[in-house]
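INTERNAL TRANSFER SHEET
From: sequence group
To: structure group
Subject: Cyanate hydratase

Please process the attached sequence and return the structure record in the designated field. Keep the field labels unchanged so the import script can parse them.
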Amino acid sequence: MMTKDDVALMILEAKRTTGLTWEEIADKIGMSPVFTHSACVGMNAFPPAKADELVKLLALPQEAALVLSESPTKNFAQTVPTDPCIYRFYEIVGVYGPTLKALIQEKFGDGIMSAIDFDMTVTRVPNPKGDRVKVEMSGKYLQYSAW
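Return from structure group:
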């Protein structure tokens, strides 16, 4: 039986051999790069039609589409705070952290976003479905040194 980890490894191998970027993969299946990566590494579930498109695009076994559309179990290896607002930020990083890392490194190279040379804004955005919280972060890119 194929697992989400098995499928994630197949996707990463197919991505490497095809030379496609996450943005290109996402564009070809009509989804955002953030959600696409997150679902590819098992932290979200693709809608079945999108899972089928991804499987075709990357020439994966058909069973992979079923796995990609299954709801994930999201386990975090660290103790998280109990304050609901702070907990949600831990949840965001737990679910989307690997995605943010992959997209940053794909665009900039092997490195990180600084939390020292950094700024952040929090804005209220009116929305008919309920006001939205918009958090924007900007940090200097720091490339890892090879030595």
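Handover comment: Residues 122 and 135 are 5 Å apart (CA to CA). The radius of gyration is 17 Å.
Transfer complete.
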